[in-house]
C-alpha cells in the first residue's frame, strides 16, 4: 500500500571547495576552505580532511585566519553569523550574530577586535540595494552566542566579487574596484577615487585587486588580460601606473607574497605566473594546472602557495613553483553526460568530470579517488574550439571492463566518434586501454550497455546508433600469437525496418536483449541473435527500457515521450499495465525486485518506488527535490540494514543516489519520517494502528470500522499465512467486524431517526415499566443495546452468502 512518507534528503558529498579563497595555516600544515554549509580543514601533507567545522545553517561565504591567534579562524555565512573556531580541534568558540547575509569577510592585524564584512547595504538608493563594506566591532563578552550591533560603513557600492577588495600596508588603507572604478580608503579619513574610462575596442573593467604588504603599490587585474601597478595614489592627481601583459584573457586572481618580493597571477590559461616585484620583466611560470585559476592564496610564512580552480580543485605549490599535492573535489561540469555508475571494485561513483576524463569519486570519504584520462589529449581552454568530450560510459557487472564513447561535434561535418574498451589492470589498480574503434557508427551513438551476466571471454557489449543499427561487440582471442592479448570485434549488426534505435538493455541473466526502435520494442536472443518478439505500446518514442529483477524478471518496463509508463509481460507477450505519468528517469535496483521512477511535475520531482508485479507503489514522495533529476543510481550498502518498517525496507540493501542540476549528490536516508496519513488496508480496518500501552485501555474497540466490502474480505482471506497476525489477535475482531458491532458515534441523520424511534418506544413502554419493576422481571435493555439490535436487524447480509457460494 502507498505510504505517504516525509523523506529527508541527506547531502552526501560533492560540495564546491573553491567557492571562496582558501586559507593556509601559519605553519603551512593545514588548509581551510568553505564547503557548502561547512568549513573543511585539510592536511597539506596527506590531502585528507582532518576536521569538518559544522554549525552554519546556510552557505559559508568566507574563511580567514584570526590575525591575533594563528590557531583560530573566522568563517562567515549567508545565515548572518560570523563564527570563531579552533580549527585544529574542531571546536566552536564563539558565534557573532550580525543579522544580515554576509558575502565575504576580511581582517587586518592593525585593527584588533574588528573584522570587515561585505553585506547588502542597509539603505537603498535610486539604484536599489548595493553591497557595502562594513566594519564590525566584536564585543568582548562572555557566552558563546553574542549579538553584534556596532557596525560602521567603510565603503559603499562594493562589487559582489570578494577578489575586488584588498587591504594594504598592514591595514592602513583598503582598495576596492567595481566596474571601471577604483576606490582607495585611508583609515585616516582620506578618500581617493579614480575612474578609468573604457576606450574603444578595449576591455579595461577591473576584475581583481591586490595590495603590496609594505609599499604603496596596488595591483589590479582586468578583462583584457592586463595587470596594472598603481603608485603615488596618496597624492592628488599625481598617480602613476605601469602595465604588465602576459594573459590573453581575463585576469581572475592576484596575490602578493608576504614579503612582497613576488606577485602571483592566474586566469583561464591554467598557468600560474610569478612576477618579480620591481623586476617585472622576469617571470616564472607553472603551466598545465588543468583548469582556469579562480583564487590564489599564500601561507603567512610564504612557504606554500595554493591555487583554486574552476574544476573544484585546489593545487598546493611549494615556493619554488613546484606542485606538491592536489585536493580534488567532485567535478561538476556544464552537464553530466554519462550515466551515474557504481564501480563494483571500489564502490566509487563514476561519472564524467573535467573535459575528456572520467572521475571515480568516493561518497563515503567525500573525495576523488582517481581520474581516468579517456581522450588522452591536452584540453585547450579556448571558446569556440571543438574538442573531444566523453558522452557515454558503462561498466560490466564485475568491473573488469569499461566502455567509453567520445565525441567531437563540428558544425560543418559529421561528428567524430570513438568507442574505447578499457580493461582493469590489477597491478596499477586502474583501467588500461585495450581497443579503440573509430567511427563505430556512421552517426551519433544513442546507447551502449554490457551484458551483466557475461564474464571473461564471453563478455558482450551492445551499441545503438542513429544510423538505424545496433551492433554487438565480443571479446575475441588474437588472430596471431604476436598480436598480444584479446581484443574486441564486431560480432553482429542488425536493425528493424529502418527505424532508429534509442535505448537497449539486457535482462539480469543476459538471456534477452531489448532494443527500442522509436515506437517499437524488439526482444532478441543474444545466443542466436534471433528476433523473438516485438511489443506494441501507446504512441510515443521509447525513452527508457528496463527489465525487472528477481521475482519480477518476466516484466519489461519502458517510458515513452507521450508520458506513459508501460509494463509488458514477456510470458504472455502482452501489455500488463500502463499509467500516464511524466517519468524523467526509470531505473532498477540490481539487488532486489524494486524499481524507482522520478516524475517531473510543476518544477519539482516526485519519487515512486514500486514492484512491477504490484499495482501500487511501495513508497512515494512528492517534491523529493526541486528541479529535474538528471541522473540516478542504486548503490549497494556495505552492511545491509534490518529495517522492519515496510516503507523503508527498499533501502535495506541499497541506497538511492540522484543528481539534479542545482543539487550535487544526495541520498535518501535509511530512516524515514512517516506521516500519519496512510492508506487503509484490511488489517488496518481490523487492528488499527499500534498505540502505546497507556492508550490501549482508553480506546473503545467498538469504534473500529466494519468490513462490509467483499473485495476487502477476499484480499484478507487470500493473504499468505506468513504475513498474517496471530490467530488469537484476529479471531475476536474479525467476528465482530462480520457481525457489525455498533458504534457509540453515529451520523446526524441516524441520530435523528433513532431519537424519533426512541421517543415512540418510550411512550409505548412507559406504562409497562412500572409492572416490570414491581414483578422483578428480567432487566430492560439499555439504549445502546436497543440501538445495536436495531442496527443488526437493518444490516444486509447477502454479501456474506455470495462470498460462501464463491
From TrEMBL:
Subcellular location per the Swiss-Prot or TrEMBL entry: Nucleus, Nucleolus
Lineage top rank: taxon: Eukaryota
Segments traversing the membrane: none
Gene3D superfamilies referenced in this protein's UniProt entry, alphabetically: YVTN repeat-like/Quinoprotein amine dehydrogenase
WD repeat copies, ranges: 53-95, 199-230, 244-285
Keywords: Nucleus, Repeat, Ribosome biogenesis, rRNA processing, Transcription, WD repeat
Region described as Disordered: 743-779
Cited Pfam families: Beta-prop_WDR75_1st (PF23869), Beta-prop_WDR75_2nd (PF23769)
Tagged with keyword Nucleus: yes
WD repeat-containing protein 75 second beta-propeller domain boundaries: 340-660
Compositionally biased region (Acidic residues): 746-759
InterPro entries from the UniProt entry: Beta-prop_WDR75_2nd, Quinoprotein_ADH-like_sf, WD40/YVTN_repeat-like_dom_sf, WD40_repeat_CS, WD40_rpt, WDR75
Gene Ontology molecular function, alphabetical: RNA binding
NAD listed as a keyword: no
GO CC aspect terms: small-subunit processome
Gene Ontology BP, a term: rRNA processing
Biased composition (Basic and acidic residues): 760-772
Name of the protein this chain belongs to: WD repeat domain 75
Annotated organism of origin: Poecilia latipinna (sailfin molly)
Lineage: Eukaryota, Metazoa, Chordata, Craniata, Vertebrata
Amino acid at each position: 500500500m502507498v505510504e505517504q512518507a516525509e523523506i529527508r534528503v541527506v547531502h552526501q558529498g560533492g560540495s564546491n571547495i573553491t567557492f571562496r579563497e582558501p586559507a593556509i595555516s601559519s605553519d603551512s600544515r593545514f588548509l581551510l576552505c568553505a564547503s557548502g554549509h561547512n568549513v573543511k580543514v585539510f592536511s597539506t601533507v596527506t590531502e585528507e580532511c582532518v576536521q569538518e567545522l559544522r554549525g552554519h545553517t546556510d552557505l559559508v561565504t568566507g574563511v580567514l585566519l584570526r590575525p591575533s591567534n594563528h590557531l583560530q579562524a573566522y568563517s562567515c555565512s549567508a545565515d548572518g553569523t560570523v563564527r570563531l573556531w579552533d580549527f585544529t580541534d574542531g571546536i566552536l568558540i564563539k558565534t557573532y550574530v550580525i543579522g544580515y547575509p554576509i558575502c565575504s569577510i576580511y581582517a587586518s592585524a592593525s585593527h584588533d577586535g574588528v573584522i570587515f564584512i561585505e553585506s547588502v547595504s542597509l539603505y537603498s538608493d535610486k539604484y536599489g540595494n548595493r553591497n557595502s563594506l562594513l566594519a564590525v566591532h566584536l564585543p568582548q563578552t562572555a557566552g558563546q552566542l553574542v549579538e553584534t550591533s556596532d557596525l560602521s560603513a567603510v565603503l559603499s557600492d562594493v562589487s559582489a566579487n570578494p577578489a575586488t577588495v584588498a587591504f594594504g600596508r598592514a591595514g592602513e588603507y583598503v582598495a576596492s574596484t567595481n566596474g571601471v572604478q577604483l576606490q582607495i580608503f585611508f583609515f585616516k579619513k582620506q578618500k581617493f577615487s579614480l575612474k578609468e574610462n573604457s576606450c574603444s575596442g578595449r576591455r579595461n573593467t577591473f576584475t581583481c585587486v591586490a595590495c603590496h604588504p609594505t609599499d604603496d603599490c596596488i595591483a589590479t587585474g582586468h578583462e583584457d588580460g592586463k595587470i596594472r601597478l598603481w603608485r603615488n595614489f596618496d597624492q592628488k592627481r599625481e598617480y602613476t601606473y605601469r602595465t604588465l601583459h602576459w594573459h590573453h584573457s581575463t585576469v581572475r586572481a592576484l596575490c602578493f607574497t608576504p614579503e612582497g618580493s613576488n606577485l602571483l597571477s592566474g586566469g583561464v590559461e591554467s598557468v600560474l605566473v610569478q612576477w618579480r616585484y620591481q623586476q617585472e620583466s622576469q617571470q616564472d611560470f607553472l603551466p598545465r594546472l588543468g583548469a582556469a585559476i579562480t583564487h590564489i592564496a599564500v601561507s603567512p610564512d610564504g612557504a606554500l602557495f595554493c591555487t583554486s580552480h574552476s574544476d573544484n580543485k585546489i593545487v598546493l605549490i611549494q615556493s619554488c613553483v613546484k606542485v606538491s599535492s592536489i585536493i580534488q573535489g567532485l567535478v561538476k561540469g556544464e552537464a553530466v553526460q554519462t550515466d551515474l555508475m557504481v564501480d563494483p571494485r571500489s564502490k566509487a561513483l563514476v561519472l564524467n568530470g573535467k573535459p575528456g576524463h572520467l572521475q571515480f569519486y568516493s561518497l563515503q570519504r567525500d573525495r576523488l579517488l582517481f581520474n581516468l584520462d579517456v581522450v588522452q589529449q591536452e584540453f585547450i581552454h579556448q571558446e569556440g574550439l571543438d574538442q573531444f568530450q566523453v558522452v557515454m560510459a558503462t561498466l560490466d557487472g564485475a568491473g573488469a571492463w569499461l566502455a567509453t564513447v567520445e565525441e567531437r561535434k563540428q558544425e560543418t561535418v559529421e561528428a567524430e566518434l570513438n568507442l574505447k574498451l578499457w580493461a582493469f589492470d590489477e597491478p596499477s589498480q586502474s583501467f588500461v586501454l585495450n581497443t579503440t574503434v573509430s567511427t563505430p557508427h556512421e552517426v551519433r551513438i544513442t546507447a551502449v550497455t554490457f551484458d551483466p551476466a557475461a564474464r571473461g571471454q564471453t563478455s558482450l557489449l551492445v551499441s545503438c546508433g542513429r544510423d538505424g543499427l545496433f551492433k554487438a561487440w565480443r571479446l575475441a582471442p588474437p588472430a596471431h600469437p604476436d598480436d598480444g592479448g584479446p581484443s574486441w570485434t564486431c560480432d553482429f549488426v542488425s536493425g528493424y525496418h529502418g527505424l532508429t534505435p534509442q535505448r537497449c538493455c539486457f535482462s539480469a541473466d543476459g538471456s534477452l536483449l531489448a532494443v527500442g526502435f522509436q515506437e517499437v520494442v524488439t526482444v532478441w536472443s543474444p545466443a542466436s541473435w534471433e528476433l523473438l518478439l516485438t511489443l506494441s505500446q501507446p504512441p510515443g518514442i521509447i525513452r527508457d527500457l528496463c527489465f525487472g529483477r528477481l521475482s519480477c524478471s518476466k516484466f519489461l518496463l519502458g517510458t515513452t515521450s507521450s508520458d506513459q509508463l508501460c509494463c509488458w509481460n514477456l510470458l504472455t507477450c502482452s501489455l500488463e499495465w500502463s499509467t500516464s505519468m511524466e517519468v524523467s528517469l526509470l531505473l532498477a535496483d540490481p539487488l532486489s525486485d524494486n524499481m524507482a521512477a522520478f516524475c517531473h511535475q510543476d518544477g519539482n520531482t516526485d519519487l515512486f518506488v514500486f514492484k512491477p508485479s504490484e499495482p501500487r507503489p511501495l513508497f512515494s514522495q512528492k517534491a523529493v527535490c526541486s528541479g529535474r533529476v538528471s541522473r540516478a543510481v542504486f548503490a549497494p550498502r556495505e552492511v545491509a540494514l534490518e529495517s522492519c518498517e515496510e516503507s523503508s525496507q527498499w533501502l535495506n540493501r541499497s541506497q538511492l543516489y540522484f543528481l539534479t542540476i542545482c543539487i550535487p549528490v544526495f541520498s535518501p536516508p535509511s530512516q524515514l519520517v512517516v506521516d500519519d496519513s496512510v492508506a487503509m488496508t484490511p488489517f488496518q480496518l481490523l487492528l488499527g494502528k499500534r498505540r502505546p500501552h497507556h492508550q490501549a485501555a482508553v480506546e473503545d474497540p467498538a469504534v473500529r470500522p466494519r468490513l462490509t466490502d467483499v473485495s476487502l474480505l477476499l484480499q484478507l482471506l487470500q493473504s499468505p499465512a506468513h504475513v498474517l497476525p496471530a490467530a488469537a489477535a484476529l479471531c475476536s475482531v474479525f467476528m465482530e467486524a462480520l457481525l457489525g458491532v455498533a458504534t457509540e458515534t453515529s451520523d446526524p441523520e441516524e441520530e435523528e431517526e433513532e431519537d424519533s424511534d426512541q421517543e415512540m418506544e418510550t411512550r409505548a413502554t412507559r406504562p409497562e415499566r412500572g409492572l416490570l419493576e414491581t414483578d422483578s422481571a428480567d432487566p430492560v435493555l439499555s439504549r445502546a443495546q436497543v440501538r445495536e439490535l436495531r442496527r443488526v436487524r437493518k444490516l444486509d447480509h447477502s454479501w456474506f452468502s455470495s462470498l460462501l457460494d464463491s
